[in-house]
Amino acid sequence: MHLIVPKSYEPKLSVRETQDAIRYIRETFQDEFGKQLNLSRLSAPMFVEKKTGLNDNLNGIEKPVSFTMKDMGDSTIEIVHSLAKWKRVALKRYGFKLGEGLYTNMNAIRKDEDLDNYHSAYVDQWDWEKVIRKEDRNLETLKATVKQIFKVIKHMEHEVWYKFPQSVHHLPDEIHFVTTQELEDRWPDMTPRERENAITKELGCVFLMKIGGAMKSGKRHDGRAPDYDDWDLNGDIMFWYEPLDQAIEISSMGIRVDSESLQRQLKIADAEDRLSLPYHQMVLNEEVPFTIGGGIGQSRLCMLLLGKAHVGEVQAALWPQEMIDQCEAHNIHLL
């Protein structure tokens, strides 16, 4: 457990006012986001069968919550870590065309998460996915989409300011693009997290690209599952967050693997056994569309826009009693 306590923290909204702001942000953002990116809202599962290969494996060490169902024989059911792979199959299943996409409210349980101001065992985000052409699998498409998302987030800042002027946290006016290798070259003696903080504090908002593969040092900046993002065409949207004096990640996204990048990354990850799973076979045989997609943290966006000190102020979850007591002692009211 790791907790950062801002000095003299005073929430600008009461708990009930915060609940009203949460509802407003979530409802307003998803409507504008869907309109700007041409996405339709779909219902999505909270659990999938393990044997389909549809669950997100994250870094490969986190264990999903699993169970069996009375009418499903001995099939292992897993609560999703995210819907990264499910969405791509859904686009095919529901007949989405080029330039069209979907978004959904994704609720997940990540029981092995290290709890802190940003991280909870309960994950709530807008998972989204959009059909692109094979020839659009490039940095230009990635950057253009990132700019669209940044524009919607900035729009939400203005909307929140209009409705809750006393509480809005002001954001930078521009997003900058940097790669993990550029950060390693500039700050070779720093840890990846220290580099993220340094560049985000300097620029205000960054899209940190190329996460998952090894850098020149032979080390990885951070882990990424090998079977959904193309490690050369992905990244995280991060803002410098003054209340906690560190960067906050709002979105992880990328252009999805094709047959070639899937095979290459599974080999690097020593996970080629996954190639026999139904989802991976569909990618290999180009039976699912080429896509770009990602997730945008709902609670983190609320936290960012409202200047909150802890994600537990904008979502109801479970926390260690020690963390609850420390928060209460410093005016951080967990839901």
From TrEMBL:
It catalyses: L-aspartate + NH4(+) + ATP = L-asparagine + AMP + diphosphate + H(+). Keywords: Amino-acid biosynthesis, Asparagine biosynthesis, ATP-binding, Cytoplasm, Ligase, Nucleotide-binding. Residues 23-320 form the Aminoacyl-transfer RNA synthetases class-II family profile domain. It is found in: Cytoplasm. InterPro entries: aa-tRNA-synth_II, aa-tRNA-synth_II/BPL/LPL, AsnA. Its EC number is 6.3.1.1. Its main location: cytoplasm. It is an enzyme of class 6 (ligase). Pathway: Amino-acid biosynthesis; L-asparagine biosynthesis; L-asparagine from L-aspartate (ammonia route): step 1/1. Pfam families: AsnA. GO terms for cellular component: cytosol. Gene3D superfamilies: Bira Bifunctional Protein, Domain 2. One of its GO terms (biological process) is L-asparagine biosynthetic process. One of its GO terms (molecular function) is transferase activity. Belongs to the class-II aminoacyl-tRNA synthetase family. AsnA subfamily. This is Aspartate--ammonia ligase. It comes from Secundilactobacillus odoratitofui DSM 19909 = JCM 15043. The lineage of its organism: Bacteria, Bacillati, Bacillota, Bacilli, Lactobacillales. The gene is asnA.
